[in-house]
Design goal:
With 186 residues, the protein is of the alpha+beta class. Helices cover 34% and strands 31% of the residues. The chain contains 6 helices and 6 strands. Strands 1, 2, 3, 4, 5 and 6 form a 6-stranded antiparallel beta sheet that branches. The structure holds zinc ion. Zinc ion binds next to helix 4.
């Protein structure tokens, strides 16, 4: 099911503003780096993203660099439209707050531009690369009713526990080996 376009009247409503606040809080509490309104039971085209530097502490500098992962302040986008700027596919593990306990490698475009509105209804344009581009593609999919499960490489699907043990610090060349394992078996 596709989430609904948010009209200017709906956006101004107290309940919608409350929804945005509560999504931002949920994101902090989980913690996660992105959330879409359908994940909290509202079929509205609203996404929030935030990637705090404290989330990066456990990860190696090498990995952060490979992922193009830098801190992102809280960003609210209403009625996002996504455009791929660089379609070079990046292969990394990702997870989802709606699919708790698992991760999988999902190919995502390296860079995107997202146009929409901010929470006050003002036009907003975000150009994102690397990890932020991945977050935006993931959250946009939620608005289309898609989970990463439909885009992941199924043979890379692992439990959170095994991810933490074997893959949390995996660099692109290591992930490539895993991705290619299946291909060589075919
Ligand atoms: Zn998700």
């Amino acid at each position: 099911m596709c989430a609904e376009h948010v009209t200017p009247t709906t956006l101004r409503q107290h309940t919608t503003q409350q929804l945005i606040d509560s999504m931002a809080l949920t994101l902090q509490d989980q913690p996660g780096v992105g959330l879409a309104a359908p994940q909290v039971g509202e079929q509205l085209r609203v996404i929030v993203a935030e990637d705090k530097s404290e989330y990066h502490k456990k990860l190696s500098k090498q990995l952060l660099k490979a992922q193009g992962r830098v801190p992102v302040p809280l960003t609210v986008i209403v009625n996002p439209e996504i455009e791929i700027i660089d379609d070079a596919l990046q292969y990394f593990f990702e997870g989802c707050l709606s699919v708790e306990g698992y991760r999988a490698v999902v190919p995502r475009a390296r860079s995107v531009r997202v146009k929409g509105l901010d929470r006050d209804g003002e036009p907003l344009e975000v150009k994102a690369e690397g990890w932020f581009a991945r977050i935006l593609q993931h959250e946009f999919d939620h608005l289309q009713g898609d989970l990463y499960l439909s885009k992941m490489l199924p043979h890379t699907f692992v439990s959170e526990k095994n991810f933490a043990k074997d893959w949390i610090d995996a660099l692109p060349y290591e992930i490539s080996k895993l991705v290619d394992q299946k291909r060589s078996k075919i």
